[in-house]
Amino acid sequence: AAQCFEFAPVRSRGALKGRIAIFVPDVRDDMQRVVGAAEVTIFEFHTDGGTVKSQDKVKVPVAAGQIAELLWNSTGSALIAHCQTEVDETGQSYYGGSKLVLISADGECQ
């Protein structure tokens, strides 16, 4: 299930009508160990005739992430995902872990 989402500030151009980023948190077992990676997915919405269709453009796995803050740039062409965990699996930090992921909407930069 999605934990958070953020719409991109995109102006409608031709068939492109919108863009959204969705964060799905990692899956953990009873001992709070990561058994499935978190994921950030960017979807685009296009018009085809009179209908709106969605297409997943970019799907980026994140090793560990329980919560995330998603921030688009002003044109909606790139996204920064600040993924955080409450527990640092490496044991290096008492305060959990944090990771920044830069993703371009076309998938060129990850």
Describe the structure.
With 110 residues, the protein is mainly beta. The two termini are 23 Å apart. The chain has strands spanning 4-7, 16-24, 27-28, 34-36, 38-48, 51-62, 67-72, 78-85, 97-104.
Short summary:
The chain has 110 residues and is an all-beta fold.
Order of strands across the widest beta sheet?
Answer: 1-2-5-6
* Structural class assignment: mainly beta
Classify the helix fraction into a percent range.
Answer: under 10%
Strand content: over 45%
Q: How do the helices and strands follow one another from N- to C-terminus?
A: EEEEEEEEE
Q: Mean pLDDT across all residues, rounded? A: 87
Shape: elongated
Rg over CA atoms, rounded to whole Å, is 16 Å
Distance between the termini: 23 Å
How many β strands by DSSP? 9
The stretches of 5 or more residues where confidence is low (pLDDT under 50) are: none
The major pleated sheet works out as:
4 strands, antiparallel
Can you count the helices?
A: 0
Relevant terms:
110 residues; mainly beta; 3-stranded antiparallel beta sheet; 9 strands
